[in-house]
Write a structure and sequence with these properties.
By secondary structure, this protein is α+β, with helices and mostly antiparallel strands. It is built from two helices and ten strands, in the order αβββββββββαβ.
């Protein structure tokens, strides 16, 4: 019995050494956001709400936007990051009038509490069945300050029948990527 206990203890120590050696190889060290990386790419999801809803002809409305940044990865190394941003903008909009290229700015709050201010110009291009939203600009403050950034998202095309109702379109969603270069 004493021999079995000694063998078990020896085996446990050996397994612990092997696990301790393999875990760092299996899980690369994550880089904090403040550390420089060549580039960072995140998956994004956006939800927009409009009040009042967007109808056929342009009218003043308030748009509230919430973006979530997930699955962020640094080129050449792991990055532990996810984040979100939310902002509101007042402007005229209508279903048949494409959004003119307009400057916007948002503060992204990362999961570790740090922030990045993304200042950009947004354009919307309509294609059959989808709208492509492109935001090109610079990180002007916080983590990644001074670096170029862009977001590209696709949203289902506007339902023109809903544009003919009094309520109009009150919500829209998109998926895409956010890249810091």
């Amino acid at each position: 019995m004493r021999e079995q206990v000694a063998l078990l203890a020896k085996s446990s120590r050996a397994i612990s050494v092997v696990v301790a050696a393999l875990v760092p190889a299996a899980v690369p060290a994550a880089t904090a956001l403040a550390d420089p990386v060549a580039a960072v790419v995140c998956t994004t999801s956006s939800d927009w709400s409009y009040s009042p809803g967007v109808v056929l002809v342009p009218r003043p409305l308030r748009t509230t936007v919430r973006d979530d940044y997930t699955s962020c990865a640094g080129v050449g190394q792991a990055v532990t990051a996810s984040g979100s941003s939310e902002f509101t903008v007042d402007r005229d909009a209508g279903c048949l009038e494409p959004l003119a290229a307009v400057p916007e700015s948002r503060v992204i709050t990362w999961a570790d509490g740090t922030t990045s201010t993304f200042s950009y110009t947004v354009t919307v291009t309509s294609a059959p069945g989808a709208d492509v939203i492109t935001k090109i600009g610079t990180i002007t403050d916080g983590v990644f300050a001074g670096r170029s950034a862009q977001a590209v998202q696709a949203a289902p095309a506007v339902d023109l029948v809903r544009c003919l109702t009094d309520d109009g379109i009150t919500r829209q969603s998109a998926l895409g990527t956010f890249t810091v270069l």
